Amino acid sequence: MCALQTLLPLLKKAAGDLERPDMVYWFKQADAELANIIRGRPSDTAAIPALIARSPQNGHHA
């Protein structure tokens, strides 16, 4: 978990450099979830549909 905690900010920055707000959003969410797990707080799986609905959409579809 410590490695992931170190890696997530780097991934978030790389996604920002690539102008991928959708990826930045999900890396921020993952970072917040990891912080909650480390603090001993349970995941809120009921919040997932709302997170998906609020997430920026990737405009670079293949």
Descriptive notes:
The model has no long low-confidence stretch (mean pLDDT 84). Helix 1 (2-17) runs antiparallel to helix 2 (21-38). This protein has a domain at 1-38. It is mainly α. The protein is built from three helices and no strands.
* Major beta-sheet overview: none
Order of helices and strands: HHH
What gross morphology would you assign?
flat
Estimated share of beta-strand residues: under 5%
Number of strands: 0
Estimated structural class? mainly alpha
Task: Report the end-to-end length measured between terminal Cα atoms.
Answer: 33 Å
Poorly predicted runs are none
Helix content: 55-70%
On the 0 to 100 scale, the average pLDDT is 84
Count of DSSP-assigned helices? 3
Radius of gyration: 13 Å
How are the SSEs placed, and which strands pair?
Blueprint: H1 2-17, H2 21-38, H3 48-54
Helix pairs in contact: 1-2
